[in-house]
Amino acid sequence: MTSGVATAVKSLKQRVKVFGVEPAGAPKMSESVKKGELVTLAGTDTIADGLKPVRAGELTFEHVKKYVDEIVLVSDAEIIAAVRHLVLKEKIVVEPSGAATVAAILSEKIRLPKGPAVAVLSGGNVDLRMVPGLCD
Fold it and tell me: What's the sign of the alpha-carbon dihedral 14, 60, 50, 108?
C-alpha cells in the first residue's frame, strides 16, 4: 500500500513527505532500501500479519526507493497500543498491519507537520480478544 500511495502522492506533489512504516520484527523493505537491493529475511515475527512476508515485491521495492522519503520501524507493543487507541479513543477497528502508521505517530517516530497530514488506516480483520487489555 505504501508504494501505491507514495507513487500517487509524489506524482501530484513531489515535496510532500511520505513515510513507510514496518514492524521491527519484519523489516524487509527497510533492509532492502538500506542495501539497495531486495532482501529476503530469514523469518519474521510480528502481530501484523499483513506485513509479515519475508520479501517485498520487485515493483513495490522500486516505487518505495523512488517515492518514499523514510521508513520507520515500530514494535509490536507500539502496534498493539495503536490498535487499542483506535478502538477505545477513535472508535475505529483497524487490524494491526493497518494501525502501523498510527503506531509510528503515537510513538513519535513520525512527527506530524504543522498543517495537513494523512495516516492511512486499513483492514478490520482483527480478533480483538488478541489485543491485550482490550477485552479483559
Answer: negative
